[in-house]
Amino acid sequence: MTDQKIVTINPLTQETIASRDYMSDAEAEDVVKASHEAFLDWRLRSLEDRAEVIRAIGKALRDSKDEFAELMTREVGKLLKDSRDEVELCAAICDYTADNGPTVLADEEREVDEGSALVVHAPIGVVYGIQPWNFPCYQAVRYSISSLMAGNGVLLKHAANCTGSGLFLRDLYERAGLPKGLFGVLLISHDQSDKIIEHDLVRGVTLTGSDKAGRAVAAKAGEHVKKTVLELGSNDAYIVLDDADLDLAVRTCVAGRLYNNGETCVNAKRFIVTAKNYDKFLDAFAEKFGAITMGDPSEKGTKLGPLVSKDQRDKLHEQVEESVSKGARLVVGGEVPDRKGWFYPATVLADVAPGQPAYDDELFGPVASIIKAENDDDAMRIANDSRYGLGGGIFSKDVEKAKRLAADLFDTGMIFINCYDIATPNLPFGGVKNSGYGREHGPEGLKEFVNVKSIKIA
């Protein structure tokens, strides 16, 4: 791979930030072996010892918040405020893991007819993570901290857009006391990545990305009977029922669509509004979207930064144009601005229906798809009419009714009632259908990559 480079480009200035060499196969092999060698010692350290290192990582993240946030904003174009919030979320994940990991992963005594028994949560070995660019810190922290708490080694293949963030995180982990080599960063191609999945020393694989990428990675891991956790994006539906507080719904849905420049798997994306509220919701939503101005993501007053790349911006625009050609109505935005930077305006599509990308596919950027439902029951039907099932939301003044709908009928992994959020350290994160499987965060996430051993003593 010596004749190729990993190039990171600032999406605001379109200037190259860094150009790095791909690793040779031998160099990648050394990173895998180093993680495994460090794991052999790390697995023997007590849960409490591991927790203290993870607590120190949380402190190091907070101490480096401004530096890390500025790097992420340069690499991927996210608002500087959002970058700072991301680092704080990652530090909170470390705090939660340090506080709860030793208890969640502790040996459990079980009653048996004769003798005694233990259930032990043992580490499995080296876990390989393939991660996207939209949350350069969080995507890596989300799986690595739980795996490290369990006693595993960790490998990271980060997106080319944020290679610098991956390297920054590795160095930060080691400054905080993580054994050198235990968390290894791989600067490798897709073909080389397949070899890492196949590697005998790699025992688990986790990926965040498209459903297409998820199928490929799961198939490759399945050939070698390796555990996978997949988070594959979504087309999250937010339902506005007849009795919703419209002001709250509009305000929350606008924020939920634009968070992180609209480049988030759990962004609010489809807005399913009952006929009773549709016109008022659409008018108010479009008014707020039309007032959103684009600008330098590092400046305090900016509401919408550039998309991560030209390819990402062009794909989004193609999806908008195809949706309009198939019957969607462009209400606000929808034109590529004539300016430096890979910007795309806050865009509203109405009359969205099946067969349009705005209805069927994930639009990864600041485009809202507004869909009319006949009534509350029809709204829930439309919400579930998707190949995805990561998150979603319900707006209703009848919270008990909304809770029943969320628990019994909404076919997703996470539901927000009268609010929008992305992740909480003690709540499981993950989806169903083409949004993947497995969970991160909470006790459930801490146990994804462990060997649950049964030990019976006579």
- Describe the strand arrangement of the main beta sheet, using strand numbers: 12-13-14-11-10-15-16
User: Helicity range of the residues?
Assistant: 40-55%
Q: What would you call the shape?
A: globular
Rg from alpha-carbon coordinates: 23 Å
Report the CATH superfamily of the largest domain. Answer: Aldehyde Dehydrogenase, Chain A, domain 1
Given this structure, which CATH class of the largest domain is correct? Answer: Alpha Beta
Structural domains: how many? 2
Counting DSSP H or I runs of 4 or more residues, the number of helices is 15
CATH architect. name of the largest domain: 3-Layer(aba) Sandwich
What proportion strand? Answer: 15-25%
Low-confidence stretches: none
CATH fold description of the largest domain: Aldehyde Dehydrogenase, Chain A, domain 1
